[in-house]
Every structure is written in C-alpha cells, then in structure tokens.
Write a structure and sequence with these properties.
The chain is built from eight helices and four strands; from the N terminus they run H-H-H-E-H-H-E-E-H-H-H-E. By secondary structure, it is mainly alpha-helical. It folds into two domains: 138 residues, no CATH class; 80 residues. It starts with 9 loop residues before the first helix and ends with a strand.
Length: 232
C-alpha cells in the first residue's frame, strides 16, 4: 500500500483551497439568507454559519476523506498510519490550524517526506491522489528523502513546536524594531509617511524571509532546540 501512494503537487492543493474559498462562503451566505427569511438573526445566525463551515470542512474531511474542493480536484485527506479517514477531532484540529496559519502552513510541503503541510504534521494526516490510474505522470510526487542518512532527527512535533517558538520570538523582536523605527502618528493614528510605509514593507519582507528560513532549517535539524545528531 505504501509503495502505491502518490502525492499531489502544491498547485492541486491550492486549487482545492480556492474552490473551497468559493463554495463555503456561498453556502454560508445562502444559508443565512434563507434563515433570515424565517426570522433567524443575531447569535443564532452566527451559530448557523459556524455549523455550515463545520459541515463543509472538518465533517466532510472526516466522513468523506476531503472537502468539496479536494474531491473536485481528485485528492483526498487520510490518516498517515491507517490510510483511513481522519476522526472528527483530528479533522477539526487540522481545520483550525489551517485557518490560523493560512498559506504559511503549506511551506513544509516542500520539506517533509510525505509532502505534509504544518496542519497535516500536527494531526498525522497526508494528502494523496484518489485515483492513481487517471493521474498524469507529470503531476505525481512520491515520498522524498527528507532526512539524511547517518543522523538522528528530533520528532516532527518537536520541530513544529520549535518553529512556532522561533517565530514568536522573531515576531516580538521584529515588532519591537518596527515600533522604534516608524513615527508615532503612524502607530497611534495610522497616519503613515512614505518612509513609514517603507519600514513596514521591509519588516514584512524580513519576517517572511526569516520565517521560511526557520521552517527549512528547523526541519533539517540545523537550529538550536531541534538539532540533528550524528549517529556514531
């Protein structure tokens, strides 16, 4: 079974996200409009919207192996060990992590052995093609050699935790620098000069570059707290 697993390229996963980005809001809006016609408003509308999102995301992943976007693109979400659908708790945690991290979560698709995003690593899920026979050869990815032989690597959860810790510290440090470099009117009243805008853009660019570096280096066991060890 393991030898036949094939993984989608990042483009397929982004296509699924874009489809869900249309389908879910349309479903939520349609449900709320219909509910309003029956006098459902306020907090009940919010609960109803949350229920629709729950059904279209974690519940679909748990019961059918993927969202509508996944199925239309021909990919599915499975438990890494059992190759079965995720349980509802794992699917919910995966969804929350995906929402919180956004596209940033997809960075580890380029570094992990089974092309897992951060939200996949957290719950032990993988994204694979549903139908091997109908998949074009140029879209097929197999397991990569993510770890060098001769080294012992820290566990994946530990590496994820260290990535998060590094970026908390990074955000605090760069945020402090940004506050010290931009003007008071920009901070308090959002009246930013061109120079303030340059500083803000530079901060965002530097943060993103450092974030990518921390993800790659942590995953390869090159940073303090998640270093790989030479096997003697």
């Amino acid at each position: 079974m393991k030898a036949t697993l094939i993984y989608p390229r990042l483009l397929r996963r982004i296509q699924a996200l874009l489809i869900n980005g249309v389908v879910v809001p349309v479903a939520v809006i349609g449900t709320l409009v219909t509910a309003s016609n029956f006098g459902v408003q306020g907090v009940y509308s919010a609960i109803l919207a949350g229920l629709v999102i729950f059904i279209f995301e974690p519940l679909f992943v748990s019961t059918t192996g993927g969202t509508i976007g996944h199925h239309l693109i021909g990919i599915q979400v499975k438990n890494k060990k059992t190759k079965k659908n995720l349980n509802i708790a794992s699917a919910l945690v995966r969804f929350i992590a995906k929402i919180m991290l956004g596209l940033v979560s997809l960075i580890t698709v380029f570094t992990t052995k089974q092309h897992q995003a951060i939200h996949d690593v957290l719950v032990g899920s993988i994204v694979i093609f549903k139908n091997i026979e109908s998949t074009p050869n140029h879209e097929i990815l197999y397991e990569r050699e993510a770890e060098e032989s001769g080294y012992s690597y820290p566990s994946k959860p530990r590496r994820v935790i260290m990535i998060l810790l590094y970026n908390i510290v990074l955000s605090i440090a760069l945020g402090t620098i940004l506050i010290l470099t931009i003007s008071e009117p920009c901070i308090s009243n959002n009246l930013c000069s061109n120079l303030d805008e340059v500083f803000a853009f530079g901060w965002q660019t530097l943060w993103f570059a450092c974030f990518i570096a921390s993800v790659v280096l942590c995953w390869k066991g090159r940073l303090f707290g998640c270093r790989r060890l030479l096997i003697k």
